[in-house]
Structures are given as C-alpha cells and as structure tokens.
Amino acid sequence: MFIDTHTHLYAEEFISDIDEVIKKAINAGVEKFFLPNIDASSIDVMHALCNKYPVQCFPMMGLHPCSVKENYLEELATAYNLLKTKKYLAVGEIGIDLYWDKTFYTQQADVFTQQINWALEFDLPIVIHCRSAFDKIYEILTGFKKLPKGIFHCFSGNEEQANKIIEATNFKLGIGGVLTFKNSGLDKAIANIDLKHLVLETDSPYLAPIPYRGKRNESSYIRIIAAKLAEVKNCSISDVGNITTANAKEVFGWD
Ligand SMILES: [Zn+2]
C-alpha cells in the first residue's frame, strides 16, 4: 500500500531494534523500503540489510554530496565498480549540498554530473539530494540533452520550483515529514501540484513528522505523512497510497 522511497534503515540508530522497526512498518502498510547509499562507509551495512530483507529492502548506489571530500575520486571508483557488478534500484543519493560546507562546491557539481552519466549508462533513475543548491542543480539537469528518470528527494522548494522541476525533467518530488511541520510552507508549495508527481518518503532516521519531530524517524511514520498529504490534497489516504506507489513504480520499476 505504501512505499518508503527514501530511508536509511541501515543507520546505527536502528542497530538495536531494526527487526521491530521493519515489522512495525509492514504492519502500518509500508511494503517496501528503498535505501539510498551515502559513501563507502554505508555500503556493507546497507547490503547486509537488503540481504536480510530481500523482498522489502532495495539498495541504491551513489556518493552523497556531503561525502564529497579530499578522497572523492576513490569514493567514486568504489561506487562505480559496484554499479558495474551488482543490481541497484537507482543511483543515489546524489546532488549538491551547500548548507553545511561549500569547500567542495566545484567537486560536488562535477560528482553530481558524473553520477547522472552513470545513471544513463546503467539505465537507472537518480535520487537527488538538494540543499541550498536549487539553481545549480537545475542548471546541471537542464544541461543534459537526455535525462534518466528521477526523484527530488525531500523536496523543500516553493511552487515555482516544483513546477520548474516537473516541466523540465518530469522528476517526482519526494514528500516527507516536513509536510507536517508548522510553517514549512510545503503544503502551499504542493497545493496545486498533481498527486501524480509525488512520492512518499521518511528519510529515516531524520526529519520525523509531527508529533515525533526531533525524535528518531522510522518508516512506519509514512502513514502520518500520507494522512497529511491526503488532507492537503483533499483525498483519501488510500488514494495517496495507490497513486504514490504507482508513481514510485514508474520511476524505479522494481520487480
Ligand atoms: Zn537521505
């Protein structure tokens, strides 16, 4: 009924009770969990979880913009070799983040571009992390003659930016706990955006929805996000579940 299209369930926050967390999510109707990679340090734990839950958990491969540091060439080589040899759902998460640190801005942009090329090479969608970098990401995306399918994970822009993405790329917008935050403005930004452009995500363990804001997020909270989205779009929760699941399927095409 629901897909958590972006969740870091392999994170250390879940080490002690991951089986419970997954069981709780399945009981809440969350059928699948898509796991974005961060960098070399997350690969083994991510694969271990996917091996343990092969029906529910699916890995992505890519280098997160916040992990683009001095050793980024080595990191890229590791990710690329894995993309060549193993099956992944997407290239992710990739993008540009200028919120915390601008030191590697140029490299972040290059690494992002490089990984979009990989997605085209391996015929995979991309999952984009965009923070304080909308214009640059938009510029890079629109510089491509052909783009893979994709998702703007944790979309947090305004209505104009949402429309720009959809018109230029037809990417989906990932909607998570931020939608439940007072004054986030996300409800207004997506008020006129058709549900067919949206997918659900938690970004666990981060960005827990209200009433759990500030606490550990987990995939069962997809239901809280779906309920809020149903309210914003004036439809039923099951409509939200069916449509966003179909949207996720359109992007990731898992079997
Ligand atoms: Zn993430």
Describe this structure in words.
The chain has a single domain (2-252), classed as Alpha-Beta Barrel (TIM Barrel). The chain is 42% helix and 14% strand. The chain contains nine helices and eight strands. It has helices spanning 18-27, 40-52, 72-85, 105-122, 134-142, 159-169, 186-189, 222-233, 237-252, and strands at residues 2-4, 30-35, 57-59, 91-97, 126-131, 150-153, 172-175, 198-200. The strands form two sheets. Strands 4-5-6-7-8 form a five-stranded parallel sheet. Strands 1-2-3 form a three-stranded parallel sheet. It is globular and about 45 Å long. 46% of the residues are buried. Bound molecules: zinc ion.
What topology emerges from the helices and strands here?
Blueprint: E1 2-4, H1 18-27, E2 30-35, H2 40-52, E3 57-59, H3 72-85, E4 91-97, H4 105-122, E5 126-131, H5 134-142, E6 150-153, H6 159-169, E7 172-175, H7 186-189, E8 198-200, H8 222-233, H9 237-252
Helix pairs in contact: 3-4, 5-6, 8-9
Q: Which structural traits does this protein have?
A:
single chain; 255 residues; alpha/beta; TIM Barrel; five-stranded parallel sheet; three-stranded parallel sheet; 9 helices; 14% strand; binds zinc ion
